[in-house]
Design a protein that fits this description.
- The protein is built from 8 helices and 8 strands.
- The chain is of the alpha/beta class.
- The chain has one domain: Alanine racemase (TIM Barrel).
- The chain has an 8-stranded parallel sheet.
- Strand 6, helix 6 and strand 7 form a beta-alpha-beta unit.
- The radius of gyration is 17 Å and the shape is globular.
- The chain binds pyridoxal-5'-phosphate.
- Pyridoxal-5'-phosphate binds next to strand 8 and helix 8.
Length: about 240
């Protein structure tokens, strides 16, 4: 199947899932997870209707950026981010989805101030409580959000989560429900961020319909758009 056919198929599935949940699909953004894809494939996806690309690795982002591969679409950073690489992203990407610590938040703030920009971010939540995963614990969320509210160079737009790999269909519903509840709670509690907490990023190829049923405003899809990826290192 061509990239175009895959994009159309995934878009149709998103519309169907939104309809089944009584939601407007216009409120759900499909983020194409473009890790390991070439600039050419990214251009193909954008030509087929992709409006937002999600990159995992700074190195790949830099290469595609130089290539102008993202022209016509937004770019999000969705991978694990090291503080010393913040400088490559701030002011360039539309959203950094994977902010998972106070030091990282500070590094983004410093860079944003230096450039005179406001960087949109999401806080990544370790909703499954897995030792191997990044993301803040749900209990740490209020403190981190309060801190972020004081930083002029960052604007928290919402939350992101990568739940544990589901063992059976529907296996992540409980995590998606928990994330939605956290999202609602934080939006209400954290007055300073009230007007900007509008993104809940969750759901991937195997479970984005469930995520939409639970209130995701953004799904990150790779395999269903581009096919199976070769095995890769987990980080970078
Ligand atoms: C790769 C990736 C995705 C997409 O995963 P698929 O299962 O291929 O759809 C989503 N989110 C993040 C953070 C990823 O790294």
């Amino acid at each position: 199947m061509s990239v175009r056919e895959c994009v159309e198929r995934v878009q149709a599935r998103i519309r169907a899932a939104a309809e089944a949940a009584g939601r407007d699909s216009a409120g759900i953004t499909l983020v194409a997870a473009t890790k390991v894809q070439t600039s050419e494939t990214i251009r193909e996806a954008i030509a087929a209707g992709i409006t937002c690309c999600g990159e995992n690795r700074v190195q790949e982002f830099n290469a595609h950026w130089k290539d102008n591969a993202y022209e016509g679409a937004k770019v999000h950073f969705i991978g694990h981010l090291q503080r010393n690489k913040v400088k490559y992203l701030v002011g360039k990407v539309d959203l950094i989805e994977s902010v998972d610590s106070l030091p990282l938040l500070d590094a983004i703030e410093n860079r944003a101030e230096k450039l005179g920009v406001v960087q949109d971010i999401l806080i990544e939540v370790n909703v499954g409580g897995e030792a191997s995963k990044s993301g803040v614990e749900p209990e740490q969320l209020p403190a981190l959000l309060e801190m972020a509210a004081k930083l002029p160079g960052v604007r928290v737009r919402g939350l992101m989560a990568i739940p544990p790999a589901a063992q059976e269909p529907g296996g992540n519903l409980e995590y998606f429900r928990r994330m939605y509840q956290l999202f609602v709670d934080m939006r209400e509690k954290i007055v300073d961020n009230k007007n900007t907490m509008d993104i809940l990023s969750m759901g991937m190829s195997g479970d984005f319909e469930d995520a939409i049923a639970c209130g995701a405003t953004q799904v990150r899809v790779g395999t269903a758009l581009f096919g199976k990826r070769p095995p890769m290192r987990s980080n970078g």
